[in-house]
Amino acid sequence: MKIYTKTGDKGTTALFGGTRVPKHHIRIESYGTVDELNSHIGLVRDQDTGEHSRKVLSRIQDRLFTIGSTLATDPEKQKLKNGKERLNIPKISAEDIEMLEKEIDKMNEDLPPMTHFVLPGGHQSVSFCHIARCVCRRAERLATALHEIEAFDDKVLQYLNRLSDYLFVLARMLSKKLEAEEVKWIPEKS
């Protein structure tokens, strides 16, 4: 299989279903940002997060491929002529969202309550989590904008929303595990 096709040389790309759109289209921005997020999650997974977190992060990466596929499908071509779904993969489910919520709750049990905003940093692994969280928020913003134009399964938006929360709590959990200082943001007085 050739990696380069030259079909995008004039600034367009094909969605699942064959529709060609400009590479700057909101749909491309949306799933491209999800792909960027997936790469950052891989970087987080490569850190010393512990075996359980690595498994959860691998599952998240799988779900992000599902989200990317969903976002990369032309809504008018979601169904094949025979009536079957173009994407023959499991969709984002309520269980996927609940898994993130359970992981958040489980990590939060062992963390001190938050009394202030926390400045990102303290350890490289923690910083990688915060970068992934910010990219996740951007993916969510872009997906929300796309959803207003061409609706898709609401669970995709819910998953991205919960995932950014998960990444924030994972950053806090790693701070504790790695004995990194969690720096509270206390606004300077004028």
Automatic annotation (TrEMBL):
Q: Which domain of life is it from?
A: Bacteria
State the UniProt keywords alphabetically: ATP-binding, Cobalamin biosynthesis, Nucleotide-binding, Transferase
Q: Which InterPro entries match?
A: CblAdoTrfase-like, CblAdoTrfase-like_sf, PduO-typ
Instruction: Please state every residue range assigned to the domain named Cobalamin adenosyltransferase-like.
Output: 3-173
Entries under Pfam families matching the protein: Cob_adeno_trans (PF01923)
Do you know which PANTHER family this protein is assigned to?
CORRINOID ADENOSYLTRANSFERASE (PTHR12213), CORRINOID ADENOSYLTRANSFERASE MMAB (PTHR12213:SF0)
Q: What is this protein called?
A: Corrinoid adenosyltransferase
Q: What is the lineage of its organism?
A: Bacteria, Pseudomonadati, Bacteroidota, Flavobacteriia, Flavobacteriales
